[in-house]
Amino acid sequence: MTAKSILIIDDDIELTELLSEYLIPNGFEISIAHDGQQGLQTATSSQHFDLILLDVMLPELDGFEVLKRLRQSHSTPILMLTAKGDDFDRIMGLEMGADDYLAKPFNPRVLVARINAMLRRVDLLNSPKQQSLHINDVEVFPASLTALCNNKELPLTGTEFGILHELMNHVGTLVTKNQLSEQVLGRKMASFDRSIDMHVSNLRKKINDVTTDDKIKTVRGAGYIFIGVTP
To answer: Do residue 43 and residue 112 come from a single domain?
Structure first.
């Protein structure tokens, strides 16, 4: 089994060394960049990365700018590292296309669990058992993590694709926010966690760019339903 490749973009040299020492024995290949410009260049090079750990506070280019530029051409899963209790950074990162966030300081075991959950979701979607779906003018193709609406490709992140796929798998049925968090993010929702709401909001915006038809119904305080009109 090929080791998963992770790029860490963080200017804290001591932290990146500690993370490398912890992640490598857990089966990961690690690359490190200590500023935003170097991180962006490495992330967009010919080298493939299965996941990127991206700090918010970086020299040269901050984490938000790196995230913004990456999302113009790359759907690599990105886990943002934010300051503890800084809700603004978390919300901003999610709005700009981060897949999830983890507040510093964190337990390395929590980080590994979060990374494994994100990568398992990608592997599950890529499984040959996962069939493409075509419902209400939306098509999803798990093998390539691509989605179409009205025959136009949607520029989704891996998490947005996972949410759309999960909703379509339960078409016409309420899927709770906690179910989406566990199935797509690989973790239970914390109190006042807005991650799923932000991802669904981003997903809706991208769908609304190509159609005026509502595809996702919100059940306030509960979750979401994919509207099932079969083509």
So the answer is: yes
* CA–CA distance, 196 with 106 (Å, rounded to integer): 21
The per-residue pLDDT for range 60-95, each reduced to its tens digit, is 999 999 999 999 888 899 999 987 666 788 888 898
Domain harbouring 60, CATH code: 3.40.50.2300
* 70, 44 Cβ separation under 8 angstroms: yes
Q: What's the pTM?
A: 0.84
Contacts of 207 (CB under 8 A, 6+ apart): 138, 149, 154, 215, 216
Beta bridge partners of 51: 6
Q: Are residues 55 and 117 in the same domain?
A: yes
Contact in structure between 179 and 223 (CB atoms under 8 Å): yes
pLDDT (tens digit per residue) in 140-179: 998 888 999 999 999 999 899 999 999 999 999 999 999 9
Which of these three, 65, 100, 125, is where a domain ends?
125
143 and 105 in a common domain: no
Query: What is the rounded CA–CA span in Å between residue 207 and residue 147?
Result: 10
Domain limits for position 157: 133-226
